[in-house]
Write a structure and sequence with these properties.
A hairpin with a 4-residue loop joins strand 3 and strand 4. It is built from six helices and ten strands. It is of the alpha+beta class. It has two domains: 62 residues; 154 residues, no CATH class.
């Protein structure tokens, strides 16, 4: 029996690859449909028994091997909240923005950017994460919250808002605590969350502040706490 020609061998290899790719796509489609079916069951009221997993399956429209990795920052925050009813929570959102005086120019350099921060302080009225899978919202149980900014673009005036602190949609949510934002020589967490009176009131000593002084951040945190009628030592 003669050897298969090189051209026939190549054709056979390519045909095998194409068949494998078709099979992979079919299996991938089947897995996706099954995952979406699980999602729909949760939306209709069934549960995995895990609030965080339920929320992520619904908001991420299915699940895969990365879902549990995505759940890690949620679980970390959930553990930090336990037993903290009546205590403070500080949420810091950071964004990379261009300096106002150079916007509208052509090609920008890294030094043309800076990191803006928005701070939100609240008193917890419960010790569990607030998760609304239907509305794709996540946050903290609060009766109101105070917020202020320290950047060029962010509103620096301290303001109070009634109601629960629905932080942001899933697309910009708690999983961003694992992400970094950088501008020029500055690098910090895109989202930082500090839970508990002791840690919040000493946050000015530890968290990234950019160009702001410790004393300025300490003053802002205490002013926000006073606005929330939170008694502190």
């Amino acid at each position: 029996m003669g050897k298969t020609s090189i051209n026939d061998e190549i054709k056979g290899i390519l045909a095998g690859q194409q068949a494998a790719e078709r099979l992979f796509k079919e299996e991938q489609g089947t897995r996706k449909q099954r995952a979406l079916a699980v999602r729909d069951r949760i939306v209709k009221g069934e549960s995995t028994g895990d609030r965080i997993l339920d929320y992520l399956i619904v908001t991420a429209e299915g699940f895969d091997q990365s879902t549990e990795t995505m759940a890690a920052p949620y679980r970390k925050i959930a553990n930090e909240l336990k037993g903290k009813t009546g205590q403070l929570v500080l949420v810091i959102k950071r964004e990379r923005n261009a300096h106002k005086h150079i916007t509208g120019r052509g090609q920008l350099q890294e030094s043309d950017y800076h990191v803006d921060a928005t701070y939100t302080l609240a008193v917890l009225v419960g010790d569990e994460l607030s998760l609304n899978a239907v509305k794709h919202q996540e946050g903290f149980p609060t009766a109101g919250y105070a917020s202020w900014g320290d950047g060029v673009w962010s509103e620096r005036k301290l303001a109070y808002t009634d109601g629960p602190l629905w932080y942001l949609s899933f697309l910009d949510g708690f999983w961003r605590t694992t992400q970094k934002v950088a501008a020029g020589d500055d690098t910090a967490s895109a989202l930082e969350i500090v839970v508990g009176d002791e840690l919040v009131l000493s946050a000015h000593e530890k968290i990234w502040r950019g160009r702001r002084s410790k004393s300025e951040l300490k003053k802002n945190i205490r002013s926000a706490a006073a606005l929330l009628e939170k008694k502190i030592a």
